[in-house]
């Protein structure tokens, strides 16, 4: 395809602008819900006196729910439609948030895993519905750029989740107890999510079948081998991304370089700020540059920055970790969109299969926490480095459809 021709293609078709805005709001919400875990991880280490591998069970709870719920979510969305799937997902999200109220009175770490698991069940429904839906809201040739644009709202939610969570949870005088302190923000989140769920019961969204009839997606055939390579790349990316986010605060604060609260601020404004900016810039660049090429460049960038993070280079290593967020920013939506192109039109089924990849978020932090406890923070970044290497392999094999 001629680059100048691609540059004239709108990222979002005009008739789908309102649905795009509505769905983009969901990206913001689950971004904040997932990002606040990166603050709670350090908070619970301080509050309960647990090690890194133990605190990583929080990620295992929420991302384990993704793994268990992905296939059922795809079936429900295909059976009942995108809008109803979104309402069910938001309802589970709200219920999980409100469960923090009774659990906070007991203040036992393992009990906090239950509301996180319920939240994860809601989020997997939202992501299974929203990610492929966005790819259909315009020309197939700009699907990766369109998903990156929507995922920019996810990045904004991540920034807000970490920034507000850091201000709320990471005090200089963190001590055991303080159940109300944990329940209050989740109560607020639960109320907001319930309101959004009600709003979605009052709106109509064009369904996938309608957009197929309009010519956005071809007839269903079958998965190709590259679809499964894309799935492996998504698992590897989730291992890398969630591991980095989970132990960023530890890396920046355990050696006294920053306080935990300041490290959370750096994560939100510095790391996640670059993450958001990278997705916005990436969505625009992919109107001119082929998505596999962008993915290849970014994969090399993440491998280099991870290698620098592992080296004893002082400030250079710290900066390398922050810069990595810019390179990794476009990976999930780009791999997802490219993989859907190898799914033969099986959009709902392919989306639920691809969402199984989020189990990497349950595996990665446990592995990285174990390595960090045994060998130190710097050595543990070998885990995300290996994940980014798998992404590089997929970028070398992938082609624009």
Tell me the β content: under 5%
Helix content: over 70%
Number of helices: 19
SSE sequence, one letter per element:
HHHHHHHHHHHHHHHHHHH
Structural class: mainly alpha
- Provide the gyration radius in Å: 20 Å
Oligomer: single chain
Low-confidence stretches: 1-6, 174-178
Shape: globular
The end-to-end distance, rounded to whole angstroms, is: 10 Å
- Overall strand count: 0
Mean pLDDT: 85
Largest sheet: none
Structural description of this entry:
The chain is mainly alpha-helical. It is 78% helix and 0% strand. The chain is built from 19 helices and no strands. The chain has helices at residues 3-7, 17-48, 52-55, 57-80, 82-98, 100-106, 113-135, 143-169, 179-201, 208-213, 225-253, 260-285, 291-310, 315-328, 331-340, 347-355, 360-375, 377-380, 382-397. Helix 8 (143-169) packs antiparallel against helix 12 (260-285) and helix 12 (260-285) packs across helix 14 (315-328). The longest helix has 32 residues, at 17-48. The protein is globular and about 50 Å long. Mean pLDDT is 85; it is low at 1-6 and 174-178.
Topology overview:
Elements: H1 3-7, H2 17-48, H3 52-55, H4 57-80, H5 82-98, H6 100-106, H7 113-135, H8 143-169, H9 179-201, H10 208-213, H11 225-253, H12 260-285, H13 291-310, H14 315-328, H15 331-340, H16 347-355, H17 360-375, H18 377-380, H19 382-397
Helix pairs in contact: 2-7, 2-8, 2-11, 4-5, 4-7, 4-16, 4-17, 5-7, 5-9, 6-9, 7-8, 7-16, 8-12, 8-15, 11-12, 11-15, 11-17, 11-19, 12-14, 13-14, 13-15, 13-19
